[in-house]
Amino acid sequence: MNKFEALGLSEAIVKAVNEMGFETPSEVQEKAIPILLNEDTDIVALAQTGTGKTAAFGFPLIEKIDSKSRITQGLILSPTRELCLQITNEFKNYSKFIPGLHTVAIYGGASITDQAKQIKRGAQVIVATPGRMQDMINRKMVDISQISYCILDEADEMLNMGFYEDINAILSHTPKEKNTWLFSATMPKEVSTIAKRFMRNPVEITVGHKNTGSKNVSHEYYVVNSRDRYAALKRLSDANPDIFSVIFCRTKRDTQKVAENLIEDGYNAAALHGDLSQNQRDLVMKSFRNRQIQMLVATDVAARGIDVDDITHVINYQLPDEIETYTHRSGRTGRAGKSGVSMVIVSKSEVRKIKSVERIIKQNFEKKDIPSGEEICQVQLFHLANDISKAEINHEIDSYLPSINEVLEDFSKEELIKKFFSVEFSRFHNYYKKSKDLNTSNERESSFGNDSGSTRYFINVGEKDGFDWMTLKDFLKDILEIGSDSLSRVDVKESFSFFNTNAEHQERVLSVFEDFKMEGRKVNVEISKDSGRNRGGKRRRDNNGGGFKGKRRSDGFKPRSKSRFESSDDRNSGGGRRDKRKRSDRK
């Protein structure tokens, strides 16, 4: 008996499974499918990304759907359009031998009218992103009042993206007696809250431990100066010639910039982020799956749709703001029973975050050094030799051999080998012969828990720009996305000001203001030697007697309004802030 058939699946689904090449159920499938097939229950299933969760809820849902009825019976909510399309395609493959069963994808970036027409023709299963689903409900284009099953896929990611209110509103249009199946890679408090609110005595299934990373993934971190982050990325790539990787950045801007730099430097790379059209995203993913792209630079949000089993490395160019997001990132590699490597490039000030990630994923990181130029040359030469030894001979070359032999007849075998390999060796040797050591000395213990330091900054805005110390503090808090407790000693002058942040935010401050503009004028932020206080501890007044109270502009300008400021940084994209780079590193 087929192993999937032993779980209780019908002949039609087993036939589809066999055709897709599935042989052995994953652990989450073995645990979830029998329960969902045999019981009408709510369920919370926690399993690492890439463990087969879609089939775990997909097979039982298809079994329970009445394909003869045109009523929508199942609703699947997923965080991104990529994942929405991926689930829809998988459902169509699962149900290809079940006549009359239709699955429709609902997502932004496509015609809402066309999607409504597909549903009207009959869609027993709808796979939707929360935003577009809520929009269609408000327009009365979809009816989910009779569904029997609601699946929240990648629930933690949906909540991280701020879809709680949408999910709440959507579920209010569904019957209370439905079954809710929640599938997630991690179990933060928000997921636990939604489970308690919308589910009734759910069965809980956990593959491994809560929030843990895959055992097939090894975790490494590399400590470099912030200005050397990109150089470190290139060396890690060169030191792994067969790399097939996803590189994670926090923002769309950084994603695009890193990808463009890699392409300019001769790497097969591309960017994947929210500013691409659906057609562009499809072309990028097609090229990546076909290995025409070796390094895919992506935001966390865009990467939710990546379903490729052969990814060798995940490189965290920047750590995510939410530690749980690291679990999703590292889950892109080490899939389908294969091993993978998750690398993290950090500066000294970020090393403490590694300890936090270790606690969440319950796995240790190994500190490693960025390879030297000599090491890279060695790796590349042996890789070339290995490729040559495995190469199949193309006998069409035979007709050219006499002429080739005539050109090379004066050289010995050893000389020919040296000349051949010198072509590849010289390329890397010339590039790296004057390269410096990128590794920065770092004792891990000294970086944890030492946050008592403070950094003082100069900023070229002041009272003439409508700020006083309170409005400037509020503005900085909003722009830097840090708490009020992290900002102190805000001292506003006529045309400039000073402020302090905790030392850990230094790189963030300088990075955010790298090319920030206010009303077309560049806002300049530098580390200041000015203490900002006199010995009495009071705020110092400027030389013309002006106090630290700011004056309002006559045009009613309110500094807290972000709409007056221009910044090329998109802080709402990809789940994070920009790369952290010291000002001195940008020279």
TrEMBL record:
<feature type="region of interest" description="Disordered">
    <location>
        <begin position="527"/>
        <end position="587"/>
    </location>
</feature>
<feature type="short sequence motif" description="Q motif">
    <location>
        <begin position="2"/>
        <end position="30"/>
    </location>
</feature>
<dbReference type="InterPro" id="IPR001650">
    <property type="entry name" value="Helicase_C-like"/>
</dbReference>
<dbReference type="Pfam" id="PF03880">
    <property type="entry name" value="DbpA"/>
</dbReference>
<feature type="compositionally biased region" description="Basic and acidic residues">
    <location>
        <begin position="553"/>
        <end position="572"/>
    </location>
</feature>
<dbReference type="InterPro" id="IPR014014">
    <property type="entry name" value="RNA_helicase_DEAD_Q_motif"/>
</dbReference>
<keyword id="KW-0067">ATP-binding</keyword>
<protein>
    <submittedName>
        <fullName>DEAD/DEAH box helicase</fullName>
    </submittedName>
</protein>
<feature type="domain" description="Helicase ATP-binding">
    <location>
        <begin position="34"/>
        <end position="205"/>
    </location>
</feature>
<dbReference type="GO" id="GO:0005829">
    <property type="term" value="C:cytosol"/>
</dbReference>
<dbReference type="GO" id="GO:0003676">
    <property type="term" value="F:nucleic acid binding"/>
</dbReference>
<feature type="compositionally biased region" description="Basic residues">
    <location>
        <begin position="578"/>
        <end position="587"/>
    </location>
</feature>
<dbReference type="InterPro" id="IPR012677">
    <property type="entry name" value="Nucleotide-bd_a/b_plait_sf"/>
</dbReference>
<dbReference type="InterPro" id="IPR005580">
    <property type="entry name" value="DbpA/CsdA_RNA-bd_dom"/>
</dbReference>
<comment type="similarity">
    <text>Belongs to the DEAD box helicase family.</text>
</comment>
<keyword id="KW-0347">Helicase</keyword>
<dbReference type="InterPro" id="IPR000629">
    <property type="entry name" value="RNA-helicase_DEAD-box_CS"/>
</dbReference>
<dbReference type="GO" id="GO:0003724">
    <property type="term" value="F:RNA helicase activity"/>
</dbReference>
<feature type="domain" description="Helicase C-terminal">
    <location>
        <begin position="216"/>
        <end position="376"/>
    </location>
</feature>
<dbReference type="InterPro" id="IPR014001">
    <property type="entry name" value="Helicase_ATP-bd"/>
</dbReference>
<dbReference type="InterPro" id="IPR050079">
    <property type="entry name" value="DEAD_box_RNA_helicase"/>
</dbReference>
<dbReference type="GO" id="GO:0016787">
    <property type="term" value="F:hydrolase activity"/>
</dbReference>
<dbReference type="InterPro" id="IPR044742">
    <property type="entry name" value="DEAD/DEAH_RhlB"/>
</dbReference>
<dbReference type="Pfam" id="PF00271">
    <property type="entry name" value="Helicase_C"/>
</dbReference>
<keyword id="KW-0378">Hydrolase</keyword>
<keyword id="KW-0547">Nucleotide-binding</keyword>
<dbReference type="InterPro" id="IPR011545">
    <property type="entry name" value="DEAD/DEAH_box_helicase_dom"/>
</dbReference>
<feature type="domain" description="DEAD-box RNA helicase Q">
    <location>
        <begin position="2"/>
        <end position="30"/>
    </location>
</feature>
<dbReference type="GO" id="GO:0005524">
    <property type="term" value="F:ATP binding"/>
</dbReference>
<dbReference type="Pfam" id="PF00270">
    <property type="entry name" value="DEAD"/>
</dbReference>
<dbReference type="InterPro" id="IPR027417">
    <property type="entry name" value="P-loop_NTPase"/>
</dbReference>
